[in-house]
Amino acid sequence: MLYIIIITIILFIILVFLFINHFNIDRNRKINLNNIKNPKEVLTILSLKNYDENLINILNNTNISGIIINIDNLEMYSLYELIKSIKRKINRKIFIALDQDYKATYNIAYHQKFKVYPSYIGERKSEEYAYKIAYERAMKLKSIGINMILSPICNTYCSEKSHLKENIFTNDKILASRLVYQTVKAQKEVGIITALKYFPKYYDDELYIDKETKNLESIIDNRETFLAGIKANADIIVMSHIKDSEKYRDFLINDMKFKGIIMTDYINDNKNAIGFGLNVFYKNIKNIKTIIENDIKEMDLEVCSKVLNLIKRL
Predict the structure, then answer these.
(1) What is the mean pLDDT of each successive set of 10 residues along the chain, which is 314 residues long?
(2) d(Cα 190, Cα 140) in Å, to the nearest integer?
């Protein structure tokens, strides 16, 4: 009887501790969000080709979450120096991301004459090889300051003329799912924030889906590959250029049970500004604050908390 009383007391103490800890976590999240003048800035990333003092001033005077380095044919040393310069001039953690698509920088961990594209990995049909390449690349990128990568591409179809052709593993959906899983697993083990692309599908520069479409399942390029990336704990999924994007965002959350952050593909102006977990603005930053303040929809605290917690991991 005495043992039962002791065990009951111990369990009660543990439950009280867990409750207090959970309360403090939620309280800290609310404090962090309440201290931010414009929470919508937290949900913004800039993708640029110019990294001048104007950019540094914007980063230091806003709560914008990060940048995507968008420079073609960038050598490893130049990339390292650029990141070092940016980090030296700002006083907080931000996402410093690299994109996969068609950039020479995607293959920067390897000799430029031998570019290890996903299509080449797909031809090898080896999960071990996919893991090895992803792990080595992630280690190299992390060593120079990259903490986020927009990769892998989970699609299994594109037009023959698309720049994505070499960046898709294979049109074999089962094999592609396995390679996606190993790629995400390797990047996550290294500690690189991972973003899957492109949901629900990608054809060329723009994707238009009939708003009257009822069977959303039929639109998705390949449900299995995205589910493989989700299973491997991908942090982010990138939503392609589509009309009625909220419908597909809800499908991703409710039907595919994705609990991470949903990110837009590049926004070029205020006409297609939307409120996702991360909103990526491309090139034009002249009116960035005005667009963020007036055109991005308000997001709930849970979404903001997800982004802040991801930044804490950097």
Answers:
(1) 62 58 47 70 87 87 90 78 92 90 53 71 95 91 92 86 82 95 97 93 57 69 91 93 77 92 78 73 75 76 90 91
(2) 10
